[in-house]
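Subject: complex prediction, re-run

Hi both,

The earlier run crashed halfway through, so I resubmitted it with identical inputs.
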Amino acid sequence: MTTNIVDRVAVIKALAHPTRLRIAELLAKKTSCVGELHQQIGGDLSTVSKHLTVMREAGWLTCQKTGLHIYYSLACDCLDDFLRCVDSLSTNSNCC
Amino acid sequence: MTTNIVDRVAVIKALAHPTRLRIAELLAKKTSCVGELHQQIGGDLSTVSKHLTVMREAGWLTCQKTGLHIYYSLACDCLDDFLRCVDSLSTNSNCC
DNA sequence: TCATTACTTGGCGAAAATGCCAAATACTTT
DNA sequence: AAAGTATTTGGCATTTTCGCCAAGTAATGA
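This time it finished cleanly. Structure:
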């Protein structure tokens, strides 16, 4: 199958937001439910929930329902590689 | 220095667009000027130019002026790793 | 200097993303 | 069944992004 550029963009876009990137970092450390993430992040709980939906639909997260809680986890083990690449890009370009 | 989440998001966001991702792929194969990229991509030339500015300011691109042309190149060697991570995420999540 | 080629910048309407509130759903406990 | 807890969904105003057009800048050549 051909690598669809639309799917790729959806994945990348799902991390192209400060709150969602923060969520990814938090979930890389510890599987959590929406309420726990909300405590770290602030703002509206429903906003956090919607960010989680975006990330889950893009493929970054898996989730598991246990009683009243829904626990979210990072679905990949490549976030460090991904961010290593991101951090390697210098913003101060000596260009034309 | 602390890794600033705002800078990271700017880098990620710069690739979170179908045309810009396409540009990254094209430039990974071959250093090109705006006109050459425009031939591959279509649309308005000024739009392509603006996408290049976004990518350059984020750090993805370097550029070099030679006469009338401005040649753009990928500034990193980690695009493959980056995309490998992106492609590893399955969209069809078997979640709640 | 004038015309041409290559590219960028300004501006603006259209589309998409964001965040908050209110309401709805789902499960548990009493 | 009713109340309580955890989370999602709907809706909407605000902000951001996008793409095209027109105009501007920069280097080259006649």
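Residues 68 and 94 of chain A are 53 Å apart (CA to CA).

- K.
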